Structures are given as structure tokens and as C-alpha cells.
Amino acid sequence: MTQEKYMKEAVRQAKKAAALGEVPIGCVIEYEGKIIGRGYNRRMTDRSSLAHAEIAAIKKACRRMGDWRLEGCTLYVTLEPCPMCAGAIVQARIPRVVIGCMNPKAGCAGSVVDLFHQEGFNHQVETEIGMMGEECSEMLKTFFRELRKRRKKEDET
Description:
Elements (H helix, E strand, L loop, with lengths): L2 H17 L6 E6 L2 E7 L2 H4 L6 H13 L7 E7 L3 H9 L4 E6 L24 E4 L3 H24 L1
Parallel strand pairs: 3-4, 4-5
Antiparallel strand pairs: 1-2, 1-3
């Protein structure tokens, strides 16, 4: 599988979130050529601030690996991780993260802060930014455009 194939699967996961009315964010974790964890945003559905795509994928990958360490894995995510997810990635010792598009309001892989390259941490994360970035960005823009339209209609009634 090529890297793009894994990101396409992360996009498919994001579309599952969108189908639930959730912010479309998806994630997959690859190890030795196989996807070992998948997740998508479910915060509203699960009524939990912890129900992020990366957290779901990390939980599944840890179960599959039988370890809390995900060394040798690559995480693919459609949107730059938030502080919680970036911290979980560092804690899981994931060595590499591929990001679709950046998040200027909450991103912690360089937009607001960069938790992946903090000198004081015992683990650093290699990042690749922009894979399928236009598609990931457009998916989010479309979601929020539609959300604003719905809210405006609700306000008018």
C-alpha cells in the first residue's frame, strides 16, 4: 500500500463522521503494511470530549499490538491533532504522523504549538504535512459552511 492509500482510508473514516453529523475527521494507524487501527470523530454521538478520531484509532491499535507502545507505526489523520491527541500520540511513542490539513485554531503539530518536537519530551514525532490536503480541507470547509446555513435557518424560524 502506498501512503496515499492510507490517507484515503482516513478520509473514508472522516466521511463516516460526516454521515453522523460530526466534524469530519478520520484517522488510521499503519504497521508493517497493514491498518491496525481506525477511528473517526464521534464527540456528539458519544457525548464525550474524548471521542476523537486519533484516540479511537490508538485504542484499537494498542489492542491489536497488545501493547501501549505503537513503535514502528505511522498515524494518518485528516486534520492536525489537537493538544489531547498530540499528547496521546507522543505517549504512544508513534514515530511518524501524516497530516492532511492544518488546524490554525487548535493544532498542536505546528499551528498553535508543536508538541511533536518539544525538546523536553522523551519522544519526538516525525511529521509530514499536506497529504491530500486540499481534499481534507475542502471536506471540513463544506461541513462548516453547511452547519452555518442550518444554524442560520434555525435562527430565522
